[in-house]
Amino acid sequence: MRMPSSTLRSLLAGLVVTGIAGAAAAGYLTIAAGAGSKWDNRKHGTPAVITWGFVPDGTTMAATFPLAPEVTGTSQLGALRSSLDATYGVGAFDAALQRALDTWELVAGVQFVGPVADAGLPIGTATTPDIRIAAFAAVASSGFSYIGAVGYGPPGDDLNFPDPVAGDIVFNLSNAFSLFPGAEGTLKPDFTNDVEELFLHELGHAAMGLAHPASGPPEVMYVGPGCCTVINRVPSPDDIAGAKVVYGNSATPACQNGIDDDGDGLTDFPADPGCGGPPATRENPQCNDGINNDPEQDVLIDLADPECKGIAANALESGNCGLLGVEALLPLLAWRWVGARRRARSPARP
């Protein structure tokens, strides 16, 4: 959920997405920690196949749908598509959405299948496809009138208890939308709606099971002060970490996905020294993550730690040192041998 006006920043903290948010780690927030709020198997860390499609123009919204009091008329996604295509070229709207889908596929264990035909049942009454994309005009001065789009999180148990609200994404036709030129990080008008960026964010809710984190930019999922002033179409390391918590690793290895997964400014093999080769699933293994992964053994980090053997792509910074390591065991055995000799030479006690 993104808000288009900088005058509403004070309201951002009160925005919620369907589901109960659970803390996972600094920089990302999952809608439910540990299980649920994901597609397919409800166990976190398992992959999913997610279907998606466009709601036909003229589709109504059920009165029971949470957003119903704040919208008017029927879904008119075609109007939004036509507007963007007229400005940026035929197919521009659909291509922007497809890029957002592809981006999440590249960083976590999801496969998007679509567009799947939608039967046109009222929003909030159908469970096929998983992600139903619609566009409604907002009731003036309603909460929705200040928002670019809304995405509702995945169901708590997709396999046994399908949820007709889960996964729906609704664009607000009462706001303006653009496809801004420029690379990632390029300045854009404050809190304006870039379609690809906005859809990537809403998919973060509806498909990936992520909520709004407390800290922000450059997180795609962040909506607090300081967000939304630059083009942000690439998930941050925190966004990626959250997505992997929910769905596990992508079918595309991190070291060949075209994304800077660890945020160090270097992408994939061979540019990123953390990549031992194209099949590597992490750009930041222990010897290239900036963390002392064996604090009980030393204070050395990454290549400064001899356990890394000078290779950033090594997966383990820790070795056999420590109280249970070989280095500790040898002196211990020697001490016991010396002690045994001393006992042998000592006179017997009466």
Features:
single chain; 350 residues; alpha/beta; Collagenase (Catalytic Domain); two-stranded antiparallel sheet; 10 strands; 20% helix; disordered N terminus; disordered C terminus
Topology:
Layout: E1 22-25, E2 28-30, E3 48-54, E4 71-72, H1 77-88, H2 92-107, E5 110-113, E6 131-138, E7 149-151, E8 169-172, E9 177-178, E10 193-194, H3 195-206, H4 237-247, H5 326-345
Parallel strand pairs: 3-5, 3-6, 6-8, 9-10
Antiparallel strand pairs: 1-2, 4-6, 7-8
Helix pairs in contact: 2-3
What would your notes on this structure say?
- This protein has 350 residues and is an alpha/beta fold.
- The protein has a domain at 6-247: Collagenase (Catalytic Domain) (3-Layer(aba) Sandwich), CATH 3.40.390.
- The chain has five helices and ten strands; from the N terminus they run E-E-E-E-H-H-E-E-E-E-E-E-H-H-H.
- The strands form three sheets. Strands 3, 4, 5, 6, 7 and 8 form a six-stranded mixed β-sheet that branches.
- A hairpin with a 2-residue loop joins strand 1 (22-25) and strand 2.
- Helix 2 crosses helix 3 (195-206).
- Mean pLDDT is 84; it is low at 3-26 and 320-350.
Radius of gyration: 26 Å
Give me the CATH fold name of the domain at 6-247: Collagenase (Catalytic Domain)
**What fraction, in percent, of the residue positions are helical?**
10-25%
Q: How would the global form be characterised? A: elongated
Major beta-sheet overview: 6 strands, mixed
What is the oligomeric state here?
single chain
- Under the CATH scheme, which class of the domain at 6-247? Alpha Beta
Residue-averaged pLDDT, rounded?
84
The ordered string of helix (H) and strand (E) elements is EEEEHHEEEEEEHHH
Secondary-structure-derived class: alpha/beta
How many beta-strand segments? 10
Separation of the first and last Cα atoms: 85 Å
Number of helices: 5
Looking at CATH, the homologous superfamily of the domain at 6-247 is Collagenase (Catalytic Domain)
Q: Which spans of ≥5 residues are poorly predicted at pLDDT below 50? A: 3-26, 320-350
CATH architecture of the domain at 6-247: 3-Layer(aba) Sandwich
Strand content: 5-15%
